Amino acid sequence: MNRRVVMASALVLMAVASSRVQGQQTKTAAQIISGYFTSVNQHVLEMVRDFPEDKYSYKPSPEVRAFPDVAVHVMSGIVYAAKAGRGEKASWDELDPKGYRTKAQLVSAFEKSLADATTALKAIPPDRLAQAPDPWVSVMEHSAEHYGQIVVYYRANGLVPPASRPKKP
């Protein structure tokens, strides 16, 4: 088991223990994994929908990916998780950002990939997911890393990321 899975599994166990200590309804490991996977990728999707199209070519320096390239890279992980989660022989095949020339194409593809992965994740029996949380945990961690990167893209452009905006009552 690789270090990421061990670390993520420990975090899941701590979250379960914490919910018990706080007297909350105890969530299963499978519910926590599913919830976090969906949450972080929904945050990225919200940013893909929200980031101004006229700023899509932004990159903080020449050697890093532009905004849509980061989004497609995150989507590549989501596609991988869905395939592996269905039991298909899967390798992490990077999707080509050139296949998503417009914001509308990227948003549509990201929505579809996330829906597909969510369906695959929900089809896994909870006990099996708790016993073998990968690739979900690894992809969740990967998405979270790039979520942070995209937050920087927002801030560098004088924008407030959707999750940081005041909530309307």
Beta strand %: under 5%
CATH level-1 class: Mainly Alpha
Low-confidence stretches: none
Shape: globular
Annotation, overall tally of beta strands: 0
List the secondary-structure elements in sequence, H or E.
HHHHHH
Count of all domains: 1
Largest sheet: none
- CATH architect. name: Up-down Bundle
- Span between N and C termini? 45 Å
**Which class of secondary structure composition applies to the elements?**
mainly alpha
Helicity, as a percent range: 55-70%
Q: What is the helix tally? A: 6
Let me know the CATH homologous superfamily.
Answer: dinb family like domain
Radius of gyration: 17 Å
Describe, in plain words, how this protein is organized in 3D.
- This protein is mainly alpha-helical and 169 residues long.
- It has a single domain, classed as Up-down Bundle (Four Helix Bundle (Hemerythrin (Met), subunit A)).
- Helices cover 63% and strands 0% of the residues.
- It has six helices and no strands.
- α2 packs antiparallel against α3 (67-85).
- The chain starts with a helix and ends in a 13-residue tail after the last helix.
Topology:
Layout: H1 3-21, H2 29-50, H3 67-85, H4 103-122, H5 126-131, H6 136-156
Which features characterize this protein?
169 residues, Four Helix Bundle (Hemerythrin (Met), subunit A)
Give a short synopsis of this structure.
The protein has 169 residues and is mainly alpha-helical.
